[in-house]
Amino acid sequence: MSRPKPDFLAILRTLRKHGVDFIIVGGVAGVLHGAPLSTFDLDVVHSREPGNVDRLLKALEALDARYRTHADMSLKPGRSHLASTGHQLLMTEAGPLDLLGTIGKGHAYGDLVPQTTELDVGKGLKARVLDLAALIRIKAETAQEKDKAQLAILRRTLEEKSKK
Amino acid sequence: MPNRGDPEPDKFNAPSAQPTHSEDGVDLTLIRWMLSLTPAERLEVLQNNVRSILRLRGEQTET
User: Fold this and answer.
1) CATH number, position A26
2) Residue A85 sits in which domain range?
3) Which of A13, A37, A147, B37 is the most buried (most CB within 10 A)?
4) Shortest CA gap A156–chain B (Å)
5) What pLDDT, on a 0 to 100 scale, did the predictor assign at position A63?
6) Nearest to A3 among B38, B46, B60 (CB)
7) What's the whole-number mean pLDDT along residues A46-63?
């Protein structure tokens, strides 16, 4: 796999095609809500239910997903990795994909679903996206120095949206 | 009522009714522009930005 062409929509379409339950979080969620951010990877929180992990494995196979944290990118994610609360930093044929078992201080898929909205992300493809207020709150829980500028933009976006 | 020929007050020199930046320096005009788009269009903007940056870095030759 060399220089994969980043295509967020292609990754999302593959996840949906395989029936994977997931929530878009991170910078892409911010952008979908109207924040003028730039990000190179797609962050999603997936359901760690066994059936969903099986579907996710098939989707990752279709995307030729491998750990980008390994120099030769030969390691593929397995069932135990996806069932854990950890973060799987992957490279796919459609660009970087981060699969997050939990975010912030331990928020898992089931906790987050009530704080999501289903949006049309392109070409009629619907996907669950973490609400902007929840995104801000959870990001602030574990914010590092690098997150502060992004948090400011997300907060101002929420303010502007509330004026509409 | 102003006479014909009188300069229209505040048309060109008045500051915008809305601030362009927040107190913490965030460009609000970009936020307003993004909010005028649909979520799908916003994702397309991001996608195009990422590809442009990669092309500038010389990391990707395809479009």
Assistant:
1) 3.30.460.40
2) 8-156
3) A37
4) 7
5) 98
6) B60
7) 98
- Residue A93's nearest CA partner among A78, A122, A73, A79 is A73
Instruction: Please give the angle made by the CA atoms of B57, A29 and A5, to the nearest 5 degrees.
Output: 35
Helices (H), B1-63: 28-35, 39-57
In a domain, A1, yes or no: no
ipTM value for the complex: 0.93
Q: Are B32 and B21 in contact (CB under 8 A)?
A: no
On chain A, the residues whose CB falls within 8 A of the CB of B24 are 152, 156
- Is B21 near chain A, with CB under 8 Å? no
Q: Quick check: A132 and A33 in contact, CB under 8 A?
A: yes
- For A122-149, what is each residue's pLDDT tens digit? 999 999 999 999 999 999 999 888 889 9
Contacts of B42 in chain A (CB under 8 A): 31-32, 34
